[in-house]
């Protein structure tokens, strides 16, 4: 019966079905147990005329039930499988399983894993070892051979990667492993896309005499990838590619998202008949296009369908100003002609309606440009100059070009990067050169550092800069004789740039060169605040840290452990595991590193020609179902029905309701009695209860760090945020899980609930009353500790002659307390080793020591790790502002910067808080614990 999708693991057991007639005969001859009846006289008289009957055989329905149960048990023991799959011939010395796990495999990864599991299961049945390799993993990833169980574990933890596959390197490693396993079967589970070096890779893998080749590729290639997303003048244009083979027309929808993940625009990308490249356009306003952060193709769960956008994809508005009248007959002589041609591809250009600078400059600024270009503009009216200078200082970029007007005007130090000499320098004149000067190498610290100097550009005339001490730092481009060609300088948040030549081809042929376009593009990029992502403090090229990565399924995720910084300004970089696709940089600026280049194309993978037998596989889930479990469950259900039938025929179920009713009544009575006992008032318990007990129990149920409420909302909020940050750090690094920080009023709240109280000393707060200070003194005498923080980096000691207001207030408080002798934390104090090894205890500031009770009678004999002693210090004093360093906002980010700005100082401050908490909660236990190695050594263990 080959048409039936059913097979058996042990078909010989089916012969047991022949025993069913014998079982039927036995069941027919075995009568059920007679019914037991109660013997009341009246009931016998009522049925005295009845003829007593006793069954001599089982009822037919009970016999049928038992026969069916026996048949189910026999079928279950035969291990039936519904829709069985054909076992693959994975014989030979081993199975080499090579799986593509690049970005193209993300969409059907579960089916690939299911197919690989079947191959490993078949290899396990024959006891063959498995060589398992993935083509998008690190070069040093282990490939085996493994046993079947280890191979399945490695397969289950594997995942697709958002990078192209590297078949040549991986296939070569597998071929090397197969040298020790001749005659192995090879299974290639590919993603269906061709990659560079495939022919050589397959030759290396299959050139070892494979016993069998299992070949699996997707049934059809229908992925779509984005190769370009350009912010053009007319709109936002998209370019996508698809694999060849599907000649039918196709349309896909792409959505544009902002940096918050909101969909703000859509476009339809169309593929014509037989076309592998499609295009679409989003016709949205200029301002809305600049909010695009990513473009995603709908329905494509893979990395190639995502295109991230950085500042390079955002067009900026550039204002153009010139005092020269436009000559329609000779446009090449217009000062703005070459500037317009150079900026138009990547900027939105605007010009004023008036040539009067007093009207033109305010008109341009009102249109919110990112950059303003002035072509040979000399003296600027005072009112317009004030408005222009304010615009620059607020972050604008002003680019000026030299000319006769600028050369004749006086120096404007605020709107020029350098001081200029009056007049200009020309070839053949006084203070000039005799031959045109070429452009020298661009300085390494400027925005043009990675550009090659244009060999074809020469300068015959220029405006000279006065030599100053900082002229070298402000030079972005220079001539061969060292004189500046382009200079730039910061003006608060803005930038001022000067080309020392005219924007037309009269003083130099720079405006008609390709370098002119690239130089202006770089300056426009700086105006987009992209300098933080691509340049250091002085414009030097740096590496960009991974910021947000594209996962294999196209979602944005945090950087993976394998991700490494991306070198900036070094041209196109390949997408690898070290540099996966995503955003690199920081919140101040990022650079997009996308998967597909503009010239990328999808080509189908061709199956290699081999002499070994080839078995083509389909990516699919295992549709076979083991019926053993359901059959056993059905047999158990029939067994339960048989048991109930026997009880019913024996009369047990007819008496059960009365017994159950009696049992239920007794249980109900017991529940009522228990409820009455629980709800009855207990006079002794009621008399012991006191007001505030519930609050006290809640306060001591978990360890909480307290802080003194000063009355200043700003100080109290920092204290609470600081202790919250310390509590989270304690949860991450230690076994302690403190509760939410508690603000306490030392005049009224119970202080004994808290092991330590943080007191930010505020000179503007009211002086605590004598009763409140007495309560603090009692708390310290009872074993509690108060950490006083003056937050003024008081590093001269508590007995110094001059003191800050906060320190003076601290002295007034300590004057009424029983303060023990104090000393800075010694190097061998247990505080330095209670959890972390700390030489100092910085906070938001660094420089003040941490004062603790002096160890007057402690000693450190034989160079032990810490000095001997008992108890903990009841008082600690610092001026380093611990809470300011610990404070975090709702997102978990630091609220206040450290002084100096050092990320490690904040880490050391948090570690200081951990050491203080461990010291407070463990006392001299930590002091004894650090001596354990020496004690064990003395005991000879």
TrEMBL record:
Coiled-coil regions, chain positions: none
Residue ranges of every copy of the Aerotolerance regulator N-terminal domain listed in the record: 6-80
Alphabetical UniProt keywords: Membrane, Transmembrane, Transmembrane helix
Keyword Membrane appears in the UniProt entry: yes
Transmembrane segment boundaries: 6-27, 60-78, 631-651
Highest taxon above the source species: Bacteria
UniProt keyword Transmembrane present: yes
Stored Pfam families: BatA (PF07584), DUF4159 (PF13709)
DUF4159 domain segment(s): 704-921
PANTHER family membership: BLL2463 PROTEIN
Protein name per its UniProtKB record: DUF4159 domain-containing protein
């Amino acid at each position: 019966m080959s048409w039936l999708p059913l097979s058996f693991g042990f078909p010989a057991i089916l012969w047991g079905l022949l025993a069913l007639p014998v079982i039927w005969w036995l069941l027919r001859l075995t009568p059920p147990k007679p019914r037991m009846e109660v013997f009341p006289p009246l009931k016998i008289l009522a049925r005295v005329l009845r003829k007593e009957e006793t069954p001599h055989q089982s009822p037919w329905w009970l016999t049928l039930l038992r026969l069916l149960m026996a048949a189910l048990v026999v079928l279950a023991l035969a291990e039936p499988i519904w829709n069985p799959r054909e076992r693959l011939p994975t014989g030979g010395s081993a199975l080499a399983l090579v799986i593509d796990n690049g970005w193209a495999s993300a969409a059907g990864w579960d089916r690939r894993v299911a197919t690989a599991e079947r191959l490993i299961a078949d290899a396990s049945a024959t006891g063959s070892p498995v060589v398992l390799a993935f083509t998008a993993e690190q070069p040093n990833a282990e490939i085996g051979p493994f046993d079947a169980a280890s191979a399945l574990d490695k397969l289950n933890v594997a995942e697709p990667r958002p990078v192209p596959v590297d078949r040549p390197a991986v296939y070569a490693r597998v071929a090397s492993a197969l040298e020790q396993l001749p005659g192995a079967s090879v299974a290639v589970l590919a993603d269906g896309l061709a990659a560079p070096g495939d022919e050589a890779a397959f030759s290396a893998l299959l050139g070892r005499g494979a016993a069998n080749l299992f070949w699996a590729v997707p049934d059809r290639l229908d992925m779509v990838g984005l190769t370009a997303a350009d912010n053009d003048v007319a709109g936002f244009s998209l370019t996508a590619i698809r694999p060849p083979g599907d000649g039918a027309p196709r349309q896909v929808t792409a959505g544009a998202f902002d940096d918050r993940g909101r969909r703000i625009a859509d476009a339809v990308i169309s593929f014509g008949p037989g076309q592998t490249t499609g295009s679409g356009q989003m016709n949205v306003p200029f301002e809305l296009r600049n909010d695009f952060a990513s473009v995603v193709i709908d329905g494509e769960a893979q990395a190639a369908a995502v295109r991230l956008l950085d500042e390079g994809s955002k067009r900026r508005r550039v204002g153009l100003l010139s005092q020269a009248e436009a000559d329609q007959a000779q446009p090449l002589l217009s000062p703005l002609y070459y500037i317009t041609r150079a900026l138009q591809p990547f900027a939105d250009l605007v010009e004023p309606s008036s040539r009067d600078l007093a009207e033109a400059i305010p008109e341009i600024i009102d249109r919110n440009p990112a950059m303003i270009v002035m072509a040979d503009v000399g003296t600027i009216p005072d009112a317009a100059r004030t408005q222009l200078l304010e615009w620059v200082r607020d972050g604008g970029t002003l680019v000026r070009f030299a000319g006769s007007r600028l050369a004749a005007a006086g120096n404007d130090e605020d709107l020029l990067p350098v001081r200029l000499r009056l007049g200009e320098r020309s070839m053949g004149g006084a203070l000039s050169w005799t031959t045109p000067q070429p452009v020298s190498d661009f300085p390494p610290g400027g925005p043009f550092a990675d550009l090659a100097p244009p060999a074809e550009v020469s300068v015959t005339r220029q405006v000279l800069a006065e030599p100053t001490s900082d002229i070298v730092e402000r030079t972005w481009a220079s001539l061969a004789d060292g004189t500046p060609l382009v200079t730039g300088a910061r003006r608060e948040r803005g930038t001022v740039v000067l080309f020392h030549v005219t924007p037309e081809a009269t003083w130099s042929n720079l405006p008609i060169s390709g370098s002119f376009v690239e130089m202006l593009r770089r300056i426009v990029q700086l105006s987009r605040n992209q300098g933080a992502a691509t340049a250091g403090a002085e414009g030097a090229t740096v590496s960009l840290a991974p910021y947000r990565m594209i996962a294999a399924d196209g979602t944005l995720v945090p950087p993976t452990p394998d991700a490494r910084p991306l070198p900036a300004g070094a041209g196109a970089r390949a997408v690898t595991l070290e540099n996966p696709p995503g955003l690199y940089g920081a919140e101040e600026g990022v650079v997009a590193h996308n998967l597909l280049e503009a010239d990328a194309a999808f080509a189908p993978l061709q199956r290699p020609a081999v002499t070994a037998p080839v078995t083509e596989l389909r990516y699919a889930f295992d549709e076979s179902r083991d019926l053993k479990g359901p059959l056993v469950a059905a047999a158990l259900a029939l067994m339960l029905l048989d048991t109930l039938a026997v009880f019913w025929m024996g009369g047990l179920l007819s008496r059960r309701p009365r017994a159950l009713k009696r049992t239920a009544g007794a249980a109900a009575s017991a529940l009522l009695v228990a409820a009455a006992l629980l709800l009855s008032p207990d006079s002794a318990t009621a008399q012991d209860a006191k007001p505030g007990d519930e609050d006290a129990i809640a306060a001591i149920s978990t360890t909480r760090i307290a802080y003194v409420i000063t009355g200043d909302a700003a100080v109290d909020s920092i204290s609470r945020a600081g202790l919250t940050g310390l509590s989270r750090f304690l949860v991450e690094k230690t076994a302690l899980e403190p509760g939410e920080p508690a603000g306490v009023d030392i005049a009224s709240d119970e202080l004994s609930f808290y092991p330590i109280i943080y007191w930010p000393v505020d000179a503007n707060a009211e002086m605590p009353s004598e009763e409140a200070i007495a309560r603090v003194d009692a708390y310290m005498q009872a074993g509690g500790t108060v950490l006083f923080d003056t937050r003024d980096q008081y590093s001269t000691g508590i007995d110094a002659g001059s003191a800050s207001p906060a320190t003076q207030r601290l002295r007034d408080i300590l004057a009424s307390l029983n303060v023990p002798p104090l000393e800075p934390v010694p190097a061998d104090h247990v505080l330095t080793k209670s959890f972390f090894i700390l030489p100092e205890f910085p906070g938001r500031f660094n420089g003040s020591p941490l004062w603790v009770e002096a160890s007057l009678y402690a000693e450190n004999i034989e160079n032990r790790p810490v000095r001997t002693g008992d108890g903990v210090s009841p008082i600690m004093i610092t001026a380093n502002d611990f809470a300011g360093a610990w404070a975090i906002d709702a997102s978990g980010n630091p609220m206040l910067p450290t002084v100096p700005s050092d990320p490690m100082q904040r880490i050391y401050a948090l570690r200081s808080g951990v050491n203080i908490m461990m010291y407070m909660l463990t006392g001299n236990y930590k002091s004894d614990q650090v001596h354990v190695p020496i004690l064990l050594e003395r005991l000879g263990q």
